[in-house]
Amino acid sequence: MLSATHIQKLFDSGDHGRMIGCLAQNGAALPLPLQARLSQPAAAIGLGLRRLCELIYGPTSLSRAMADTLIQSQLPDGTFAGCVDRDPLTTAAAAAGLAASLREQQADMQSPSAESLDRALIGLAAMQDDEGLFRHSDDRTEQDRALTSAFVLFLLARLPRFRESIRFAELMTWFDERADRLDEDTAQLYHMASLDDPTHETYSPACEAIAA
User: Fold this and answer.
1) Alpha-carbon distance 29 to 39, whole Å?
2) Cα dihedral 112/168/166/54 (nearest 10)
3) Cβ neighbours, 10 Å, residue 72
4) Mean per-residue pLDDT pooled into runs of 10, the chain (212 residues)
5) Contact 117, 108 (CB under 8 A)
6) How far apart are CA 110 and CA 112, in angstroms?
């Protein structure tokens, strides 16, 4: 099992590729075609922070340090340093980590984490194409874009602020119309993202505020 102590060691060493590998080995939904891109620093830290918040109740010095690292690496357009170009996977993974830390901290909307999350969601919205799919230079085919977009949905679909920040209806319509033609990895991620009506999840006051 990937423990908080192990996450601490991987974070301190900056071994981002190993962080992703360990998360995948411990059951995280990380399709192999996406793992190299998710080994970018902000993506690995975001997913590591998300897992840490699942393991430990309440804020810790490690969760604060990981959130601070994400905030400090954010670029003016809401994306994160360390990528060759803007990547929705990295931005979504960082946003998922920040959202988890906000739930953990019961933070208010004026906190740096909340402001960083809001900028990340704006950055994600700017990476949607005309059909609502998220785009990146590595996603050369429609199947590539679908896998990327399904992973973004898997991470963030239950966050009200995400649904309000992007063209959510267009994105869901695209998937609904092609549900029987998705490859296995994409279909699994989309299924996990849409198992429940996202409005039925219980949120902390901080995340309810993010929806406003």
Assistant:
1) 14
2) 20
3) 11
4) 92 96 92 93 96 88 96 94 79 96 70 93 95 88 94 95 95 94 95 64 36 35
5) no
6) 7
